[in-house]
Amino acid sequence: MSTTATATGWETVVGLEVHCELATVTKLFCGCANTFGAEPNTNICPVCLGLPGSLPVLNERAVEFALRVGEALHCDVPERSIFARKNYFYPDMPKDYQISQYDTPICVDGWLEVDGTRVGIERAHMEEDTGKTLHVGGGGRIHEADHSLVDYNRAGLPLMEIVSRPDIRDAEQARAYVSELRGLLEAIGVSDVKMEEGSLRVDANVSLRPAGAEEFGTKVEVKNMNSLRSLGHALDYEVTRQRELLEAGERIAQETRHWDEDGGVTSSLRSKEEAFDYRYFPEPDLVPVAPDAEMRARVQSSMPELPAARRARLVADWGIAEQDARVLLSTPGLGEYAEAAVAAGAAPKDVVNWCTGDLLGYLNESGLAVGALPLAPDGLAELIELVADGTLSRPLAKDVLAECLLEPKRPREVVDERGIAQVSDEGELGDLLDGILAAHPEDVAEYRAGDEKARKKKNGFFMGEAMKATKGSGNPQLLARLLKERLGG
Amino acid sequence: MPRITRADVEQVAVLARLALTPEEMDQLTDDLESILEHAAQVEALDTDGVPPTAHPLPLANVLRPDELRPSLDRDEVLGQAPAAEDGRFRVPPILGEAP
Amino acid sequence: MTVAASATELAAAVRAGERSAREVVDEHLAVIDARDPELHAFLHVMADEARAQADEVDAAVRDGRDPGPLAGVPVALKDVLCTRGIPTTCGSRILEGWRPPYTATVVDRVRAAGGIAIGKTNLDEFAMGSSTENSAYGPTRNPRDPSRVPGGSSGGSAAAVGAGMAPLALGTDTGGSVRQPAAFCGVVGVKPTYGRVSRYGLVAFASSLDQVGPFANTVADAAVLLEVIGGHDVMDSTSVRQPAPALLSQLDDGVDGLRVGIVEELTDADGIDNEVAAAIDDAGRALEKAGATVDRVSVPATTYGLSAYYLIAPAEASSNLARYDGVRYGLRIDGRDTATMNAETRDAGFGPEVKRRIILGTYALSAGYYDAYYGTAQRVRTLIIRDFERAYGSFDVLLSPTAPSTAFALDAKTANPLEMYLSDVCTIPSSLAGHAAMNVPFGAGADGLPIGVQVLAPSLGEPVMFRVAQAIEAAAQ
Fold it and tell me: Looking at beta carbons, which residues of chain C come within 8 Å of A97?
């Protein structure tokens, strides 16, 4: 039981429905392009427009992707699954029914591990997406609109609906679940999972029950959470709202509520007292999908390394912390970059430090993708080598890195161009120090006569002078040693 | 005990988005009562344990390759629309969210 | 009338350069001009397009290219088949003026074989009916007796062929809508095995039952047309993965040794007119003379076909017709909001029979009733298939009446929908089973109106079905 439950006496029960747009070339049932941002109604055909006489034909790659999702989520894939019609009227629905799956989804009974806990996956099924409506007038909100405009480019895109069991117990776990699921879907290459573009959408079912109770409370559906942050905020709000009602002795209405990001509240959309009658029946225009042994084996053998396994491997092989592995793998391509740098000879811990530090900082600031970085992984390895062999101090190396990120230059090139190779010649530095000490005899005397604190101060002074004289390229560790030798004591 | 009442017809008309007149509702209630009465003859058959046939065809796994095919010309399509604006289909205000 | 009735003869003549396609088309357009004002078989005559197509065929012949097995033959198309740029109404107000942006596969195949699409024919609205009286554009009349119905729902196509307006036509058959009008008009009409012919571009009524089927004056002509339109289509997931059946090559193989079963429940039922039942027995005797063995056979579940059909077909139809909502094409009655617009549009655009079936179908699928109605009907369907399988274990083909009577008078059955539904009692079971079936004209009733014999075969059994049909036709001469 979560800490919130023990604290408040109420247990939060959350189930999440995640819709994920599959990254196929074409739509689920026709050969129109699956792209984002095209001119309205330019990716349409008789099938996805639902014109009279049109018929759906199932996309092979979409089925393969669905099986990959099932494999990644440890699901069973029953022998046969069929499509069903979900009947309701809405202008974004070209046929006024959606081809979906009802009692025979393609994947069932899986799980996803989230921070050491397994969240159950009840089912994952395939369905087609709807078109998009634009509300004109009234500030773009549906309730005050003058009229609406419909674009069917999105209609017919392949979706996977992944339904978790109500195993989630708080907002943080919900966010972690979505984050983990998102990483997983991306890693297996089935979707670009961009919440901001709508290729990943999350709805939540939230209910409360007295801590320790077995029966579930009335569940409320919450929609319109467009980012992980808003998911967290919406759940926190809704849990509080329900708790306050229950503590006041009131009933929770079974309904759908809409999260308003600006207002920070959920508001009622419609009562779900009676579930809408979708009149599901088997889709007569399609035949069953029965993945054979060959297809199942092909999917299994084509599965890439999954995020959890990859994290574990890096932690074990590189001796890094789990959190560092998580940060490294949370940015697309960064993990590959790091592995390539290690393959080029750099020490893993150094690679991870640079990648999760300066490099990640730069990526976040610039908005660039890893693939667009001008510095190749072996260039990073070179930089790390230059620090390791004393050519560059760490501060200098950061500087060099910054330059290499702006222009495609190798670190050694930059060092040569700027002549900033760290001076590590003992003789050279020794002579330099002799010169400085000779020029400041009073300070030398104060050092030798002074206490620990005074000595530290003088030391700092001499180091500063040495750095000035070498224009910052003196090897600090070497200087410190040589200084100590000369000052004695 | 009637198999279908006028209230049933009203409810179903809403589901089917048909704005029936009261006369139509009355007539339909009568018609459907006799049709359902006749159709209920199937209850005489023992269908326990008999699997339903959603399809007369024993086909499975009809799939197509994930390859692009030409889309329709937007002008030709919107030319047939009752109302269009800015390359989109125009409809009156939509009062609610999708069910 | 000097127009040759045989499509095969016409095509041969055009291919050989003995007749021009243009001439053939003009002749048939003249028949249409002469007879259609009374019969109203056509909703839209494609005169310009037909002439242009005919010119292309003639050009091909001149260039030494073979235009195909339907060269120059006019083909009438039930107005439920999409034809790009040409009005396709489905006999409904809700699609009045709609010009599809694409063409049905079967129409493309007809054209590719040199056939000439000559016009769109009248039908019961959205193929729902048995008399063509449910058309929003007025009924079609039976060419044999204009006071009678041509049957339905493909009444226009049947009448067009019966009246000599086109040697060939395409109709659609869901519960008998090709076979029954064929019987009423005295022509050959075929419902292929479900999946034999592509449904891409066929406006759906009941998806698990609909099939496009040929009308012709002879069994051989129907065979040619079915060979052209049949065969796998990648655009239709439910189309059988086989090429069109080879029919012509086996057509005259005869019936020696074939086992023919006369279906008791359909032939001896109370509702079947005596003279119709007698015709079936006559056809049976003719086949015996030709070498077949003929016996009666019981296919018990067929008795429940009508009941199962009137739950399954409207259920699928209620979903298929949801798309007519005034948003993207067709009729729109404006409303203050979209839902109102949808409801007003549909009430204004659909006729009474369509509304009846939509309400019935929606009800049969609705929560709490699915198991009792739709669910049960799909189980009955399985029982029908099993009973047929048993029968086909002992017989190669089955015989029954196509329709319980000869063509009835206009307005005779419009008062009671159930009475109209009973017209399909003989044709429905094979539709539910997905099997092949066809009507062959065989004699006439006392009223002089044609009687038809229905030949039934198991799935993909068109070759043997056509052989038997050919023998029956020969005996009918």
Answer: 319, 322
| CA A168 to centroid of chain Cα atoms | 19
pLDDT digits (tens, 9 = 90+) for C275-320: 999 999 999 999 999 999 999 999 999 999 999 999 999 999 999 9
Q: What is the spatial distance between Cα C241 and Cα C245, in angstroms, rounded to a whole number?
A: 11
Given the residues C92, C177, C405, C431, the one annotated as active site: C177
Sequence-distant (6+) residues with CB within 8 A of B29 are B4, B5, B6, B8, B9
Give SS3 for A40: coil
From the CA of A392, how many Å to the nearest CA of chain B? 52
CATH number of C259-304+380-476: 3.90.1300.10
Nearest CA in chain C to B39: C307
Question: Using a CB-CB distance cutoff of 8 angstroms, which residues of chain A are in contact with residue C312?
Answer: none
For chain A, the domain total comes to 3
Q: Is residue A311 assigned to a domain?
A: no
Model confidence pLDDT, tens digit, residues A434-457:
999 899 999 888 888 889 888 889
Residues sharing a CB contact under 8 Å with residue B12, sequence separation 6 or more, in sequence order: C359, C362, C363, C366
CATH 3.90.1300.10 fits C7-246, yes or no: yes
Identify the chains in contact with C, defined as 3+ C-beta pairs within 8 A.
A, B
Task: Reply yes or no on whether C307 is catalytic.
Answer: no
CA distance A50 to A56: 9
List the structure tokens of A84.
């069903």
What pLDDT sits at residue B2? 74
- The answer to whether A78 contacts chain B (CB < 8 Å) is no
* Interface contact flag, B32 C356, Cβ < 8 Å: yes
Chain A positions touching B89 (Cβ under 8 A) are 41, 91, 149-150, 152
ipTM: 0.96
Task: Provide the domain limits for residue A453.
Answer: 426-487
